[in-house]
Specification:
about 10% strand, six-stranded antiparallel sheet, about 650 residues
Length: about 650
């Protein structure tokens, strides 16, 4: 395995956990020789245990004899505390309580008596992927785990693209559970966010099967709390969790920047951050929609904050949707819809970077965490029909839900049956969905999930792959929670955390790390412990968050009842960047793989005011095409052999996979 790496600063953070095997030692030697500034945490024997890149304040490690423990990320814990907990643990499973107690957002990695534990966060913001190390490239075996799918795939020698996983990336807004989490590489496995990876390693205390292979399993460590808290108790719990989460980011002082859109989520974080020892510099980007009142609310918040410095990007300078869509160079470990807003994100971060911040706070997650969906009415209607009816009537009026569709959405139906029905209605030969609203109608948000929108440009082959995947999953799938509202809450949090994770990967090369405190596990738990009717009500916007922030955020800033939406930017971006989209889909790699009809796709690269709003699904397709075309992806699928990615495009360069993914 030959690597020739040049890593320009600032670096993209990543880490891998190496097996204590000949394969692990060989891989460590290769990476350390190729990347001179790669960081390592070693076992007592001297062999590399962790390799990667992280900021100095992003890793806390402890040792007790041969046992090792490391927390990577936002970790408000001392080495002494971790050492004490590690010394008391007889097995890696004994660290569950530590993972459930600590605030912040982090990966937990441990090794005790030859067994490894690798764990991300329950929200899904921090992920774990693993693959076997075997074959000619890594004799000696073992399991490689890490936080980025592309890095693990590259180092494990995986170069086979999973076409079904790619098709699942093309639906809008996201494939249903569990298909939203399927890795793009064959041989790569994703650990569910509420589970941790246990690997039995070689050695006297190691665990192996009869064939001598390492035992690999996913063990559950986290369950959502029961929603038993009322409004007052829930607000107090969320208040404590958010104050603690933001304090963990500001405790080190220095300068931090933060989004200040004027929305309740970003406004709350700014006021909490301003109360800490760090210097806060708010950033506001003004949208192009004349009805967008973000500027007014952001201005009100700034007046109360009275920061010494702040940044405002006027609407005439705010990049449009799809700007630079064919120039994405940041390494992403899966197609990410956020690339359509990449230029807008980077414009804001460039302004922030002028102040040399340690990190950038963003309000992502507030919608998913602080505000639940109304699908709790399906269960409420069975036990308390009058209470459900009293809430349903105003919700129907606000959402303009048709009566028939509303009643159908409230019918008792298991998740398996819902997913099975979805498989049967996933699309006709033209790729058009059959479970979408007719002209002028809207679907009520009362079912297990919104049925995915399928682009009219998907080929029959792609639609069949999608249908087969849903049908197979429906056989034995379990929902994320026992009720549809609890499943919906957890699914929304995972999907939203995946978006925040994608934005963090886009932002990483700028050197300004993104922080999303709403996706801290303790914040998520606090919100989920509140009864659903207290989190979601037709009478008030985000009542739980408003109650939690009273006294910390000025009352005037908590009166907002509106939320900006991006259709104006979407329309303007599609009109302004027609040529860029056509260039992106020219000689489409998705078309080469037989997944899209290139001619039909080109014809539909436009904004439409029609009720089917096909341009929404276009976002996912553009993200997938961009991902496949970027240099970082093209070198991972060298081809030309069956199942692999076709030959890389001319001009992709001669860099190796690790050069493009680390």
């Amino acid at each position: 395995m030959s690597l020739s790496l040049t890593m320009p600063p600032p670096v993209v953070p990543w880490f891998v956990v190496l097996p204590d095997t000949p394969a692990g030692a060989a891989l460590a030697a290769t990476v350390e020789a190729a990347v001179p500034d790669v960081q390592a945490v070693r076992r007592r024997s001297g062999s590399a245990w962790l390799l990667g890149r992280w900021a100095p304040d992003e890793l806390v490690q402890a040792a007790a004899g041969p046992a090792r423990l490391a927390l990577i990320g936002c970790v408000p814990a001392s080495r002494g505390r971790l050492t004490g907990r590690l010394a008391q643990a007889g097995d890696v499973a004994d660290l569950d309580s530590l993972a459930r107690q600590l605030p912040g957002s982090f990966h937990l990695v441990a090794e005790i008596d030859g067994c490894q534990r690798v764990q991300g966060s329950a929200s899904g913001l921090r992920r774990v992927f693993h693959a076997p190390l075997n074959g000619e490239r890594a004799p000696g075996g073992g399991v490689l785990a890490g936080d980025r799918a592309d890095v693990v795939a590259a180092l494990a020698g995986l170069d086979q693209l999973d076409l079904t996983a790619l098709v699942l990336c093309l639906v809008d807004p996201v494939a249903p559970h569990p298909l939203d989490d399927r890795p793009l590489w064959r041989g790569l496995t994703a650990v569910p966010p509420d589970h941790w990876l246990r690997v039995g390693q070689q050695g006297p205390a190691g665990q192996h099967d009869a064939a001598g292979r390492c035992l690999v399993e996913h063990r559950r460590w986290w369950r959502a709390p029961e929603p038993t808290l009322g409004a007052a108790e829930g607000a107090a719990a969320l208040r404590h969790a958010l104050v603690t989460a933001v304090a963990a980011r500001t405790a080190a002082g220095g300068t931090i920047t933060a989004d200040l859109s004027g929305g309740l989520d970003s406004t709350a974080l700014c006021f909490l951050a301003a109360a800490g020892p760090a210097t806060l510099i708010p950033y506001t980007g003004l949208g192009r929609d004349p009805a967008d009142d973000d500027a007014r609310w952001a201005g009100l918040a700034r007046a109360h904050l009275a920061p010494e410095n702040f940044e405002v990007l006027p609407r005439e300078r705010l990049p449009l949707v799809y700007q630079g869509i064919s120039q994405v160079s940041e390494p992403l470990d899966r197609p990410f819809i956020g690339v359509i807003d990449r230029a807008k994100l980077l414009a804001g971060l460039r302004l922030a970077a002028r102040h040399g911040p340690r990190l950038h706070l963003c309000g992502l997650g507030g919608d998913e965490v602080a505000q639940g969906a109304p699908n709790f009415l399906a269960d409420l209607a069975r036990g308390h029909p009058l209470a459900a009816c009293a809430l349903l009537r105003p919700l129907r009026a606000q959402g303009r839900w048709p009566l028939g569709a509303t009643l159908r959405a409230l019918r008792p139906l298991s998740y398996r049956d819902w997913l099975g029905a979805l498989a049967q209605t996933s699309g006709d030969q033209g790729g058009r969905p059959t479970r979408r609203p007719s002209a002028g109608q809207r679907l009520p948000d009362l079912d297990w999930s919104m049925p995915p929108r399928i682009g009219a440009w998907l080929t029959p082959r792609a639609v069949e792959l999608l249908r087969a995947a849903i049908e197979t999953a429906a056989v034995d799938v379990e929902p994320l929670g026992p009720t549809r509202d609890r499943h919906g809450d957890l699914f929304a949090a995972r999907v939203g955390a995946a978006v925040a994770r994608g934005f963090a990967q886009l932002a990483a090369p700028t050197g300004v790390p993104l922080a999303a405190p709403f996706y801290d596990d303790r914040v998520l738990e606090a919100a989920l412990a509140v009864r659903p009717e207290e989190r979601s009500t037709p009478w008030e916007y985000k009542p739980l968050l408003k109650a939690a922030m009273r006294g910390l955020v000025p009352a005037g800033c908590l009166r907002r009842e509106t939320k900006a939406e991006g259709s104006a930017e979407e329309e303007a971006g599609l009109r302004a960047h027609q040529a860029a989209l056509h260039a992106l889909f020219d000689r489409s790699r998705l078309a080469e793989l037989g997944l899209v009809d290139a001619e039909r796709l080109q014809a539909l690269c436009r904004y439409s005011a029609a009720p089917d709003r096909h341009y929404l699904a276009l976002q996912q397709t553009a993200a997938a095409e961009s991902w496949l075309r970027s240099d970082a992806r093209g070198r991972l699928f060298p081809g030309p052999r069956q199942g692999a990615w076709p030959q890389a495009a001319p001009g992709a360069g001669s860099l190796t996979p690790l050069e493009r993914t680390c």
